[in-house]
Prior knowledge:
Oligomer: single chain
Order of helices and strands: HHHHHHHHH
Number of domains: 1
CATH topology: Serine Threonine Protein Phosphatase 5, Tetratricopeptide repeat
Number of strands: 0
Strand content: under 5%
CATH superfamily: DhaL domain
Largest sheet: none
Distance between the termini: 14 Å
CATH class: Mainly Alpha
Structural class: mainly alpha
Radius of gyration: 16 Å
CATH architecture: Alpha Horseshoe
Shape: globular
Amino acid sequence: MSQPERLDGAFVARWVGDVAREIRANRDYLTQLDAAIGDADHGVNMDRGFAAAVAKVDEDARRSPGTLFEIVGTTLVLSVGGAAGPLYGSAIRQMGRALDVSESFDAEGLLVLFRAALEEIQRLGAAQPGDKTIVDALVPAIAAFERALRSGEDLVGAAGRARAAAEDGMRATVPLQARKGRASYLGPRSVGHQDPGATSTALLFTALERTASRGDAT
């Protein structure tokens, strides 16, 4: 099996770096999506935030994974404008708090962290599946990740299943009418547009699959 026995701070640092590269490559696309139903700044804001997070992680790359998640989350809260900063930042910070001082975790532990992130996002934004938000990609991704683990797949396989489910959830936001966030002000005019937050969430799982596929965690 290609699943690493344990995932450590170096794995978290690589994942953050891969997320930053995915966001950078899709910055203009995210901005275009946001221009249709938001402030046209999601791509720029996310790019700035994850670039800052990478810089912070590079400074503290030998820290515990929980500490790194908290550093990344705090950086996003401070660096990303709009609703995305508090939502993503608080969720990732909660992942760090869930790990506490653990020096490593496994795929089952990562599932726990995903659930903690979702709980925090829903606590802050009160969004449910179908509201045309981050949650529409995150919920199916977590469910697919868990199903894959229960069926005996390794981290690489589970990450791939999660990425595919997140992308399906992302695309499924197109016919929805937004019920949360700035897009909700548009009412029926939000129909027919893909949610930028769900799209950036899918990119997080694209990056996770790439990081896990390297197979060089401890």
